[in-house]
Amino acid sequence: MTKLMSRQDLQNLRSVCQRALSLETKKILVCGGTGCVAGGSLDIYDKLKDMLQARGIHVSVELAHEPHEESVGIKKSGCHGFCEMGPLVRVEPQGWLYTKVKLDDCEEIVEKTIVGGECVERLAYRQNGKIYRKQEDIPFYAKQHRVVLEHCGHINATSVYDYLAVGGYQALEKALFDMNQDQILDEVSESNLRGRGGGGFPAGRKWKSCARQKETPRYIVCNGDEGDPGAFMDRSAMEGDPHRLIEGMIIAGIAIGSSEGYIYVRAEYPLAVDRLRMAIAQAEEIGLLGDNILGTEFSFHMHINRGAGAFVCGEGSALTASIEGKRGMPRVKPPRTVEHGLFDKPTNLNNVETYANVPMIIENGAAGTNPSARRTVPAQRPLR
After folding, report:
1. Which domains does the chain have, with CATH numbers?
2. Contact at 8 Å (CB) between 165 and 350?
3. What is the tens place of the pLDDT at every residue in 215-239?
4. CB 3.0-4.6 Å disulfide test: which of 3, 19, 248, 342 passes with 320?
C-alpha cells in the first residue's frame, strides 16, 4: 500500500482496520509464543486455517483493506503466559481457552465451536474438579492486570493492522502533532516510570539528561538481552506485541532529538528477532518509520543487533560496545551512557519493558496512567 503521508491518512487506515476487526464474527487466537511454538502450535494454526477454508468459511488471516462481511479471523497471537498448558487456543468473542491442543483436536474445534457455537469442554482447563471455560475465570489469570502485555494473546502478533485496530500508534500521533519535546519529557517524568530492567532509575530523569546534551547525533538503544535465568518478560513483549516497543522507541526519539534506534536482542531469541524484523519492515512500508514520518520533519530509523550470548552484555556500556563490534566489556563510570554511549555519543538506553510502557503514558497522560504519579513509587514489576 502507499505510505501514510499525514495524520489523517493514519486515522483513516486505523478506522478501516477497526471496521475489519469488528466484522470478524469469531476469532481463533493460536498462541505463537516460543513455548507453544515448540509444542506444535504453528501446525495447529495451519490445520485450522485449511479446515476452515475447506468448509467454504471466509478466513481473515490479516485484516484486509476492504473488510469482508462475517469472516472468521485466525491469528498467531503473542504468549498467553500459561506455557505449561500449551499449545493454547483462544476463541472469541466467548473467551474460551483450550489447553494442550493437539492436531487431532482441530476438527472438533471447527465443527463444534466455530460452526456449532459450543465449547469443547474436554479441552477446557480443569482445577480441583472444576471446569473453567473462559480464560478470565481461570485462577492463573483472574488476579492479573496486564499492562505491557495487554494485547498478548488477543491480537495478531505479526500484523501492524491488528495493532492499529486496537489503537496502536495513537500515542505516536499525539507525540508528533499535539506535544513538544519538553511536554513528552515532563509526561514521562511525572508518570514515575522506572527502569524495568531492575535498576529502577527514573526514566524521565534519564531522558532529560540525554536530551540536554549538546553533542549530536543522539541514539536510542533498547536492551533486549534479558540474560537473567528464567526471565522471559521482554521476550514475550517482543514476540507478542513488537509494534508497542517500536512505538515507544520512536516517541523516545522525538523526546531526546534522535533519529536512530537500536534494539539489542540475544541470539537465543530467534522468534523475537523475526517478529521485530517483520514489525520494522511493516512500519517502514506504511510510513511509520523512516524519513519524514506522517509528513513531518521527524525521521527515525531502527536497527536490530543480535548478542552472542554473553551475560555481561546486559550491562549498558558492554552492550553499546558490542553493537559497535567491539568486545563487550563494561567500562568505568562516569561518564554515563547519556553523555558518552553508542559511538561515544549521547545515548538513551532502556530495556524492552520500559519503552513498552511509554505509549500508554503518552496516550493517557501521567495522571491517567498512574493516579499517584507525583509521589514516589517503588520499582516493582506489574502482574502479568
Report:
1. 7-142 (3.40.30.10), 168-373 (3.40.50.11540)
2. no
3. 999 999 999 998 777 778 899 999 9
4. 342
